[in-house]
Amino acid sequence: MPDQSADLSDLRDQLVAANHILVAHRVLDAFGHVSARVDEDSFLISRNLAPGSVTADDLQLHHLAGGVDSAERPYLETHIHAEIYRARPDVRAIVHSHSASILPFGLTDTAFVPVMHMASFLGDAVPVYDQRDAVGDGTDLLVTDEARGRALATTLGDRTLVLMRGHGSTAVGGSIPEVTFRAIYAETNASVLLATLPLGSPVALSPAESSTATASIGGQIARAWNVWRSAID
């Protein structure tokens, strides 16, 4: 029988590493959060803490049915994670960030498209969640209840990333290394796109190019993860 305790220990270790890696790459700062699905009913995420300070002891087990196995204060926006996990059984890890290069694309009608092969997972134009449209005006833009979380998950649909107007973005993946890779290269793609726009109209990857590149590059994620992981140890 597989050692489930060993698997959970590795998951916790990867989750801590992802927090620190994403801070090192300036995707997260004092804010933002990373989670990992444990099973169909629960996920792990840090208590309310700056990502760069997260240790294994700070991780909390949250249940999709409600409740958390900790007396420590959770993040305000755990509903981002809970509602996406509820809507997307394929998702095993989530990153929510306020990365500055991505933020402008949720504020304008300029589409956030993949312009480099390493960001081919974005597919065509990334959807934008506007909380004002979803639940009405006057909110703080935070996703702090089930209704807002469900609206965000609906906007995400079957995509890998959703922009959040005036707030940031949320990336999903099939593993912690994959979602870390996506969060970092979404930020890189945004920086390249911002640098390209003043020069002229960017040439986005075609759907066929995105599909082929994603299939090819997806097998190389471990290389990036191992390099990033060694840099924080």
Please characterize this protein's 3D structure.
This protein has 233 residues and is an alpha+beta fold. The chain has a single domain (4-232), classed as Class II aldolase/adducin N-terminal domain (L-fuculose-1-phosphate Aldolase, 3-Layer(aba) Sandwich), CATH 3.40.225. 39% of the residues lie in helices and 15% in strands. It has helices spanning 4-24, 78-87, 131-135, 146-156, 176-196, 207-217, 221-232, and strands spanning 33-39, 42-46, 59-63, 93-97, 128-129, 161-164, 168-173. The mean pLDDT is 95.
Order of helices and strands: HEEEHEEHHEEHHH
Helix content: 25-40%
Strand content: 5-15%
Give me the side-by-side strand order of the main sheet.
3-2-1-4-7-6-5
Q: What's the name of the CATH homologous superfamily?
A: Class II aldolase/adducin N-terminal domain
Main traits of this protein?
single chain; 233 residues; alpha+beta; L-fuculose-1-phosphate Aldolase; 7-stranded mixed beta sheet; 7 helices; 39% helix; globular
Compact summary:
With 233 residues, this protein is α+β, with helices and mostly antiparallel strands. Helix content is 39%, strand content 15%.
Topology:
Elements: H1 4-24, E1 33-39, E2 42-46, E3 59-63, H2 78-87, E4 93-97, E5 128-129, H3 131-135, H4 146-156, E6 161-164, E7 168-173, H5 176-196, H6 207-217, H7 221-232
Parallel strand pairs: 5-6
Antiparallel strand pairs: 1-2, 1-4, 2-3, 4-7, 6-7
